[in-house]
Amino acid sequence: MIADQLRLHGVRHVFCVPGESYLDLLDGLYGVRDAVQLITCRFEAGAVNMAEAYAKLTGKPGVAIVTRGPGAMHGAIGLHTAMQDSTPLVLLVGQIPRDEMDRESFQEIDYRRLFDATAKWVVQIDDARRIPELMHRAFVVAASGRPGPVVVVIPEDMQTDRVTVADGAPYTASLVQPYPDPAGMARLRALLAGASQPLVIVGGSGWSEQGRADIAAFAAANGLPVTVSFRRQGILPGTDPLFVGDLGVGSDPALVAKAREADLILAIGTRLGEPVTQGYGLMESPAPRTRLVHVHPDPSVIGRLFQPTLSIQADANNFAAAARAMKPVDGARWAAWARSLRELREAGRAPPNYGGALDLGRVMRELETMLAGDAIIASDAGNFYGWVSRFLNLKPGQRYVGPTNGAMGYGVPAAIGAKIADPARMVVCAVGDGGFMMTGQEIATAFHHGVNPILIVFNNNMYGTIRMHQERDYPGRISGTALTNPDFARFIESFGGHGEVVSRTDEFRPAFQRAVASGKPALIELRMDPDVINTRTTLSAIRAKAAAEKGLAPKPPKPAPRKRPVRAPAAKAKRPGAAKKPAPKG
User: What is the pLDDT of residues 68-96, one digit of tens each?
Assistant: First the structure.
């Protein structure tokens, strides 16, 4: 019955790590295998993150299944990502038999208490007759208002009950997405007409293709400069002449300074959280002097941190359609302002001379020219992401998925989930060495299910973000942030994939072209200079500045990086060619 409800609600893929607590649901999924494909993963965090990325791209609730106790705990990080990223997700969790509850039985957890702060709703189905009712509600809650995760707990013995009950309607028939109030739109137009330095911030989840087109048309008709919130690239293409960059961790300081000069901020879909508002310092709180218009589907989000001049409760896509239909305001008064912001974005995309053999700014600019027009970029969390957001402009047909909650280990599962959502599109993942080693084993899932993402591993042999903060606060006192890594290219080759190692800028283009041509899951390891810690500074500079500010003696030069195993010339020579490995015997 549960499997039937998944099919009824339009679910096409379910991500799982199997467990004995839901053997009967697994059997039910076997019965609907022609309609619902079960994606077997290697780790619950990977499974839930795959479902979360899948939901970001499809706009429909992703579905994951985990077993009780340890399985649920492993999957919790994906639940947290879905909550902070406002992603619709339904997580099914196996549970102990009903007659064993409250005895601290084997792997017993009270999921209502456990997930109270990281899910929109947690429900346990104790009566099998209520499966259609509660599954329907789970999908409605996950997809409505501010989207988010719902946890459905299914006791092991309940799954063996036999009942007869009618199906409900597909959840989409029950969704109600709010439209903007016409009076609010009229007031918005009046506020725009009185502005001289407006700035639009678009963010949040659930943007449709039409919604993105509408918001771009609204910006163009009114000449409004648009920035995206943290890790929301692609809502407005980077190639749009009114796109001025992103507001989040590692944003261009010049853009942040300009944002503080804005006399009107129109925030659409975004929660205006800590990364977007630069630690809540972009505007005064609770009542900013800057006029603020906040558009969001959830009234509890509007005014939670910053009291707006105008509140508009509306779904972002519905607002975008209404804004596009609104009579444009003459934007000549702020044309120079918008132009100056775009010029800052273009100036920031010019790769500085970092020195060294591998220039990651130029690598990202090269990557931009080789991406398919409808490519999907997935990213993990970490300092490396700055090279993606600063130097890579997404085109209108391209999409991006990344964890706004900063969860490491997201990138590889997200890329696989994206490729499963749309196998025909190119999917490229940017991930650090730390994040890859958390969930990189999920590449096995890509091989198992026949999809071929391309993974770009930024390898500096450290937890780079933490090292950066460490050098700033405790210069020269390295503790806990150094890493020992495998040969990443050989790792993917061990599965039968395509591996590349890039140590120089001019090696990247042919390496990426070979990865694409291979048609296999592929990995390109970028062996970075560990001193180049982000797009704007080096560890040496951070250390020297911190030491001077703290009155400390200069620290000795950084130690030479740990030597990596050198590949045999014969193995290295084979990489560009098409030589095949001998078939295994037996």
Answer: 999 999 999 999 999 999 999 999 999 98
Q: Is residue 130 packed enough to be buried (19+ CB in 10 Å), middle (13-18) or exposed (0-12)?
A: middle
DSSP 372-398: -TT-EEEE-SSTTHHHHHHH-PPPTT-
Q: What's the 3-state SS for 269-331?
A: CCCCCCCCCCCCCCCCCCCCCCEEEEEECCCCCCCCCCCCCEEEECCHHHHHHHHHHCCCCCH
- Poorest-pLDDT segment among 4-18, 223-237, 335-349, 541-555: 541-555
Contact assessment for residue 462 and residue 482, using Cβ atoms and an 8 Å cutoff: yes
Angle between helices 44-58 and 70-84 (to 10 degrees): 30
pTM: 0.90
Mean of pLDDT values over 411-433: 97
Work out the mean pLDDT of the chain and round it to a whole number.
Answer: 91
Band (pLDDT 50/70/90 cuts) for residue 559 is low
- Show the domains of the chain with their CATH numbers: 2-174 (3.40.50.970), 182-348 (3.40.50.1220), 360-562 (3.40.50.970)
Helices (H) and strands (E) in the chain, counts: 21, 18
For residue range 334-349, what is the model confidence (pLDDT) as tens digits? 999 999 999 999 999 8
* DSSP states along 115-170: TTTT-SEEEE--SGGGHHHHHHHHHHHHHSSS--EEEEEEETTGGG----------
